[in-house]
Structures
1.
Amino acid sequence: MPEERRAPPLELRKALITAVIAMMGFTVVAAALGWAFREPLLEVGHWFVDNFGGPGIAVGFYFPDAFTLPVPNDAFTAFGLWGGMEFWKVVAWGSLGSLAGGSTGWAIGRWFIARSARLEAFMQRRGGDDMREHLRRGGRWFLAVAAVTPVPYSITCWAAGATKLPYGEFLLISLLRIPRVALFLWLLERGFVSLSG
């Protein structure tokens, strides 16, 4: 009988340190962008808000959080902020998109992963086996960590569905995405404003 592969233990301290480093780097990048490209970024932001508004921010969060696309969803909140939308409106639209995307990811995991060899293979390539193992061992805590740190949230949502984590619990824990969206937007605002004036 082949030995089952075990995911390395999740190191919460390492995940939190990585999150802090990512936030610091994010702020520095925002500051550098604000210093070097303030006017063009404000123009892009106004164009984005004029053409897509809040729903554009929600869609920008929905697709990466649902389908594990390599798209930086925080760029869409940046566009909203640079386009003149109020801070909390941007947070609301980004959070709505993230929660809807995560819920779609949970549904993919719950109802489609076991039925599709291609989706299963895709999930494995994205680290889904490790995510499932972490969810089996750490359960809800692992999902909470993924909601607020650089642990891939979308594939964790797929794994949460695949491990049959009840949707109500999944959604309740996923509400941690709201302070995460707000924090990253606040850091972006602080970084962009600090050097751009």
2.
Amino acid sequence: MNYGESNSYQGGESNSYQGGGYEKPDASRVASYAKQHYQDNDDDDKSDLFGSVLSKVLNNGDHEQGILESEAQNAARAHEQVYTHENNVSSRDMGSAAAMQAFKMFSSNNSNGGGSSNELVGLAMGEAMKLFNKQGGSASGANQSEMLQSAAMMAMKLFMTQKSGGSGDSSSGGIGQIMGLLGSLGGGGGQQQQQQQSGIASMLGKFL
């Protein structure tokens, strides 16, 4: 099953990352991207929901940090459970899985390293809504707000990691950069650490 391989997604907004900082996502633009991907053109309530969730994420300083090794591993596993095995997962994991799927599409549409945080966060939230509905919505026990916050937070961390550079293969775009950064985390660390990092890079490599 291919959740989220929607033809409705179109990139094109210029990259807002500049000089080691970034322009915080704009609620209206994020909502526009989310609704475009979610294929929801009429529900203004969703715009309010996306804006409210984004405000909570931006008030949490963690969104300005790159993705941690453990977070990348958990998100990759959640993505596999949802998109490969079609299993139900927690609201938080559903959001992380949606963000990873969004990053896959975002990187594909911006292979030259462009693209804005508005695009990626909006795409992640729209993808999360698709998963939410696919798995039965609130009736499934999923927490919509928690799921969307998780998707937005993970998307921001992926964006910050991508834009901070890295030693990955430039031909593989943002994924390659993230793989390179993950591989360099923690300095030395010996064979066990290298094997762990290699495993994470392998999981992320599935998105290429």
3.
Amino acid sequence: MSEDVATGVNDSDSGEIAEEVAVGSSVIVYPGTDEELHGTVVEDFADLAGTAVEVAGERIVGPARRWAVNLDDGGLVFVDDDSIALAA
């Protein structure tokens, strides 16, 4: 899924989402989009998320995503607060 599609899914309340979601939570990834997926949070990288890695002024890797989600279809995705919601 492209960043453009995922960005902004939960922008207005992403802080609230982060407080509710935890390892073991059943979640919807990319809620309200054609790419919506269901799964379970398996890791929270809060301490590492959002930090790009640069060496000698050259970006080696972009910022890490906060949540690792094991999808019901067997896949694994990494998303930020703005692309995740608790499943009903």
4.
Amino acid sequence: MASVSRTDTSVLGRWWWSVDRVTLLALSMLIGIGYVLALAATPGLTMRITDPHTMAMIKQIIFLGMGGATMLAMSMLSLRQVKLAALGMGIIFFLLTGFTLLHGVEVDGAHRWIALPGFTIQPSEFLRPAFIIISGWLIAESRRTPGFPGKRAALGFFLLTALLLKMQPDIGMTFLFTMVIFTQFYLDGLDMKWVFVAALIVLAALVAAFIFIPHVHTRVMLYWHPTKTSAYQAITALSAFGNGGLLGLGPGEGQVKHFLPDARADFVFAVAGEEFGLLFCAFIILVFGVVVVRAMVRLLAEPNLFVVLAGGGLIVGFGLQAFVNMASSLSLIPTKGMTLPFISYGGSSVLAISIQMGFLLALTRKRHLADYS
């Protein structure tokens, strides 16, 4: 791509010289790390679910390839095309998220997935990037068009979505949506008294979840009072980092993947720590940090409010998801079933985060004033 001339006016040429290539490289690295860890972490679960190791590995590699292609395709969209794509996705996956309550596959008491031939899909994963774009669009439009009830519409959309997620239930996803909408209203200039009120509401919701939702109460209590049997996953994951040391035991040599049921998804960071060591984990954190900081720097110089609100929501959702996964693996916070973007196993997770970051790359491209119309 370095041979593409600055005078090239083709779609590919314009994209190459306007896209944030540092962020693109960092995201490509995460996809590459996901490929490496798909090879390293797969055996622990495949032996439990009796699927052939090679089949699970190939499926994840295919999803990563599809995710990379999807991210590149989304990054080439114009602002108008991003809005239209998000609107279509939002309608479809909002309805499918509601559909899970009636005909969803039940896993551990939650109805979050829809079964299709050969695989399952989690609609709320795909609803998230669409929701972020739509809510940012509505809030920005309320500023641009006096009298347009965009903020109320965005808040209503959030409340309906949160209700569906609560009914599944999916507390982690509800938390992500809440932090995204709060970030967008804050970036829009939310009065500090309302920031305080919102913080109190979130705190009250967390306390209520602890009191009234059994599995939330259990996870918090296990975090504060761990024992060998009750906090088995957290203790096993934490021991993996000690086993790996600075440089790790080597690819395929780790043992934690044989004992953790969620080694490929929720605790893939622990697998990385055991097999590749502390330095590799630090590199993963660094790459995530580059994506987040780079996006924030681009948005600070952005004159378009929609881009700021939508881009801010996308990067907060991405960064927060990565933090929760890695922090729970390190026992810094109670364990939460949240995937590590591009790295954890799962087709829905990989494809949805690819769309999300494709949208971010599209929003943060360099533009002339005429391109904002």
